[in-house]
Write a structure and sequence with these properties.
The longest helix has 24 residues. 0% of the residues are buried. With 45 residues, this protein is an all-alpha fold. It has one domain. The termini are far apart. The chain contains 2 helices and no strands.
Length: 45
């Protein structure tokens, strides 16, 4: 059981690193694109 738990932790760490790399590659462009439509949707609601 302990060994399986360690494997799960390793997977989580790798996923976090992959997310960080993606965020660094695309800095604010995707963030701005996502923010604008969200604001429009909130106004419509």
């Amino acid at each position: 059981e302990s060994e399986e738990y360690v494997e799960n932790n390793d997977t989580d760490e790798n996923a976090a690193v992959a997310e960080d790399a993606t965020a660094v590659e695309e800095p604010e462009e995707p963030v701005e694109n996502v923010s604008q439509p969200i604001v429009v949707v909130k106004r419509n609601q």
